[in-house]
Amino acid sequence: MIDQQKLELFPKEIYLLEQFLSYDYYYETVKLWEEQIKYAEELLDKYSANLAPAHRAQHPSHQADYVWETIVLPNFKGVLHHLVDGLDDLKESFLPILRRMSGIRNALIAQWRDYPYDWMDHVEKGSADIYKAKLDIVSIRANNTFVASDYYDSQWDYKDLLKMMCIKEMWV
What we know:
It contains 8 helices and no strands. By secondary structure, the chain is mainly alpha-helical. α3 runs antiparallel to α5. The longest helix has 27 residues, at 23-49.
């Protein structure tokens, strides 16, 4: 039998889980996502106002005014709407709402894979780097919540912890 005094609790990990699963963390991530959408919209408006004459000759995926206005931004806004709809439920401690953060990751994966954002640098030098840096932050936050939300309904029994410690000791 394992000495219960030897069981380790990881206060830092517990603290992080509490933070990632909190209403405030979720809300701030939603706000960052909304700001990012507005940033892209502002750049797209400027880009669309100054299209090159041969712009329509490009492959449609490289016509940023078209794909970002009809595909990317509506997708991002749909995710935002879905996340905002969950705020009241989360305030009432309905934790499955946290799984909605996967929407941000999925939207970003689709955008990164299919629709480049290099057009942003044609509007303002360095704006693509700013866009990427901000999206990295939103992506990390969304991923933190999504991964941590996998454990919201976990109920640990000390016997399970003891079993885990036995397995851990077998591997050491």
